[in-house]
Amino acid sequence: DKPDEVFSDDDGTRTDLVAVGDNMVTRSVMQPGWSWEQYVTPQAGTDSCPIDHREVILSGRIRYLMDDGTELIGKAGDYLEISPGHLAWVLGDEPCVTIDW
Q1: Poorest-confidence range of 12-16, 40-44, 85-89?
Q2: Where are the alpha helices (DSSP H) in 10-92?
Q3: CB 53 within 8 A of CB 82
Q4: Which end of the chain is less packed: N or C, by CB atoms within 10 Å?
Q5: Residue 20: pLDDT above 90?
Q6: What is each CA distance from 5 to 39, 43, 60, in whole angstroms?
Q7: Tell me: the pLDDT tens digits for 42-72?
Q8: Phi, psi of 76 (to 5 degrees)
């Protein structure tokens, strides 16, 4: 609840970052309609996410589309390992909340 750094967008999307040793742990709240292409591509300057993720989904649902065409849908309670080279979208009308490291 006391992040070291916070990133937020006008739509209510928010990512809290906490340094844990040499690692960063994030809690992201992504609003319905959020997508990598709309909110991150302009800032990151890459066609897809170049980061490896290990995450737990606390609420909502999210869809990942890998560069190789495979898809993964995560929902509340899921643990996911996402390799670099993917896009993501929030599914449904509920915010998606994740913890990522």
Answers
A1: 40-44
A2: 36-39, 41-44
A3: yes
A4: N
A5: yes
A6: 18, 17, 23
A7: 778 888 999 999 999 999 999 999 999 999 9
A8: -50, 130
pTM above 0.70, yes or no: yes
Token digits of residue 39? 């909110």
Q: Which amino acid belongs to residue 84?
A: P
In sequence order, which ranges of the chain are alpha helices (DSSP H)? 36-39, 41-44
| CA–CA separation, 42 and 50 (whole Å) | 14
Report how far residue 22's alpha carbon sits from residue 36's, in angstroms, rounded to the nearest whole number: 26
DSSP letter for each residue of 2-13: --SEEEE-TTS-
CB 82 within 8 A of CB 69: no
Taking a C-beta distance cutoff of 8 angstroms, is the pair 14, 7 a contact? yes
- Cα within 13 Å of Cα(66), Cβ side: 12
